[in-house]
Amino acid sequence: MGFSRQEYWSGLPKGCQGPSLGLCVRSSGETRLNKEKIIQGQGIDEPLSETGFKQAAAAGIFLKDVKFTHVFSSDLTRAKQTVHGILEKSKFCKDMTVKYDSRLRERKYGAAEGRPLSELRAMAKAAGEECPAFTPPGGETLDQLKRRGKDFFEFLCQLILKEAGQNEQFSQEAPSSCLESSLAEIFPLGKNCASTLSSGSGAPGLAASVLVVSHGAYIRSLLDYFLTDLKCSFPATLSRSELTSVSPNTGMTVFILNFEKGGKGRPTAQCVCVNLQGHLAGVNKTP
Questions:
Q1: Could you tell me the domains of the chain?
Q2: What is the pLDDT of residue 64?
Q3: pTM for this one?
Q4: Section 245-273 average pLDDT
Q5: What distance in Å separates the CA atoms of residue 4 and residue 81, rounded to the nearest whole number?
Q6: Residue 147 annotated as binding?
Q7: Is 106 annotated as a binding-site member?
């Protein structure tokens, strides 16, 4: 789900004073335990299934023309395999160094890890609570998960602002293979959209295009942070349930972040799409 192309591009700031960041967040591919509805969290480090590898490859083909400037991933095996599956299909980023960060790990489910999802729901019911608000013994609360996501996001913003400050030419350059131009192809607009943006609209090119591979519950928490803390603008067609659902395997969510000159204050955020999975057409079908 997302904006129409016209809604998205008309929402970009004209003559933005500070740098802009394109952030593409994807969840890891499917594992055997995903299919069996077993809670993995952080303690069960399951590799991708055959379907999971196909999902990663499909995501890579979908993003093959994007020239990412930075790539981050959870350090859990399923995320590592997903990000490598994506980069293997890239025209520009096959040899890019991936930065693994434990802050991108899935939510920790403590005593529920390795158990069926039905048992987690039963534990929540016995405690008089509901999922996902319920925290199993030894697990991570939603507030703790959100703070972890906020910590990574603030680190990422500071990194991009520092690099943008070292590159005074970022506002004069809009590479045809950056996330901005690729989005102009993914969300059909007029033929001259990308060139208009870079030359005639007064909108600068993106200072950075960042790929982040994480996990479903983590991404749901990140969406909550963008919605409640950053007051992010989301596509009007999205329902509340879509914003609060767990990201499907290799589902894609894209944000455009705009910073004030000098990097003061929080960035303004606009969400282009949430849990996009059109690239998976045919991949998840069982013969």
A1: 17-32+48-106+141-276 (3.40.50.1240)
A2: 92
A3: 0.85
A4: 86
A5: 32
A6: no
A7: yes
